[in-house]
Specification:
Elements (H helix, E strand, L loop, with lengths): L1 E9 L9 H14 L2 E8 L5 H18 L6 E5 L5 H10 L5 E4 L3 H4 L3 H16 L2 E4 L2 H9 L7 E3 L22 E6 L8 H11 L5 E6 L5 H10 L6 E3 L5 H10 L2 E4 L9 H8 L4 E4 L14 E4 L4 H13 L2 H15 L4 H19 L1
Parallel strand pairs: 1-2, 1-3, 3-4, 4-5, 5-6, 7-8, 7-10, 8-9, 10-11, 11-12
Length: about 350
């Protein structure tokens, strides 16, 4: 099956996390479904407004050249910035089967330019044959905006590799609790709340803390650590690849996932669960769909650093038997997000749709 893949976000050598979901889904569909992809993508962020503009001009030109090819599907990720052009091309050629994959940021980001572009996205969404979303939460958001179609498929962003993200041996006799953070160091991703909750907890229990991530706020993070005399308390380790993350999730005792935005899924939390590591997470977006309070982690209200600190302390008081049971619950939850399982289900859906309607 041939697919034309369109995305304004795709990883580059220097920015491996940029649009990583797109590359991941492409790889999974190629591996399990033997799909062949023609890619029209923007690799990496633009360095300036002029550079970004040039990238988009090239993207639009390539779409114009390749849209007329023989493809079973035209698969569009983050449709906001290309919807206007696809709407025009669809009027000229309505035979192409359009898949729109929303990831969350393309629905929630708002500004004067996105408000204008979203009008075109609304039109395209209503006429697209298939909509893919990472969670029931995002499907509900589409329903609220009256953008829903009959063929909305929930595919959790490629899931997780449950053969890679696995629990390692862990001893629960150690009284020092290692609290970790994994995520982008950017506004509203929760790194500030992480720092503040750690400050509240440091003098109450034996605590070890570390952070893994990358992003625009790294200098601000480093300044905050220095200004609050946390240099010897918080170990900031920078970017980790997937192999390093497996070891990190197993190294820490509990993950803080304190996002201030309504996560459309939040694979970071699921990766931690797969390694048997419980998660203290914000009770917003899709997070409550897999974090069960008191069973595989704890849910806190947005921005409530007192609650985060309370549950760190609470976890430290649990017996080894209680921690082992939570660990088992974590692993049992993550099984449902196996990359192989969720991708094969998506492939069956796409194949059945193509055979039925085309």
């Amino acid at each position: 099956m041939k697919i034309l893949l369109i995305s304004n976000m795709y990883p580059s050598k220097s920015q491996q996390g940029y649009g990583s979901f797109v590359q991941k889904i492409e790889s999974l569909l190629s591996f399990y479904g033997n799909y062949k992809f023609k890619k029209i993508v923007i690799k990496g962020r633009g360095k300036s407004i002029l550079h970004k503009s040039l990238k988009y001009i090239i993207l639009y030109f390539k779409i114009l050249l390749n849209y007329w090819g023989k493809y079973e599907f035209i698969y569009i990720h983050y449709p906001l910035h290309v919807a206007w052009l696809i709407n025009i091309l669809r009027r000229l050629n309505s035979k192409q089967t359009i898949i729109l994959n929303y990831h969350g940021s393309d629905l929630f980001n708002r500004g004067w330019h996105t408000n204008i572009l979203s009008r075109y996205t609304s039109t395209l969404t209503k006429h697209a044959e298939i909509i893919i979303v990472p969670s029931l939460f995002l499907k509900t958001e589409l329903e609220k905006r009256k953008l829903i179609t009959n063929n909305v498929y929930i595919y959790p962003s490629g899931g997780i590799d449950t053969e890679k993200f696995v629990p390692q041996k862990k001893h629960f006799q150690n009284k020092i609790i290692h609290v970790g953070y994994v995520g982008r160091i950017e506004p509203f991703k929760g790194w500030i709340e992480f720092l503040k909750s750690i400050q509240l907890t440091l003098n109450k229990i034996d605590l070890k803390t570390s952070m893994v991530g990358y992003g625009a706020d790294i200098k601000q993070l480093q300044n905050e650590i220095k200004n609050h005399n946390l240099d010897n308390k918080i170990d900031f380790r920078g970017y980790y690849d997937k192999n390093e993350l497996v070891n990190y999730y197993n190294e820490i005792d509990i993950l803080i996932f304190s996002s201030q935005l309504p996560e459309s899924l939040g694979l970071v939390g699921i990766e931690a669960l797969a390694c048997g590591t419980p998660v203290i997470a914000t009770n917003i977006g899709a997070i409550p769909s897999y974090i069960s309070h008191g069973k595989n982690g704890f849910l806190v209200e947005k921005g409530n650093i007192l609650e985060i600190s309370k549950f760190i302390i609470h976890y430290s008081t649990l017996s080894s038997e209680e921690k082992i049971q939570i660990r088992k619950n974590c692993i049992d939850t993550a099984v449902h997000f196996s990359s192989k399982k969720v991708t094969l289900n998506l492939i069956n859906f796409l194949n059945e749709y193509h055979s039925q309607y085309r």
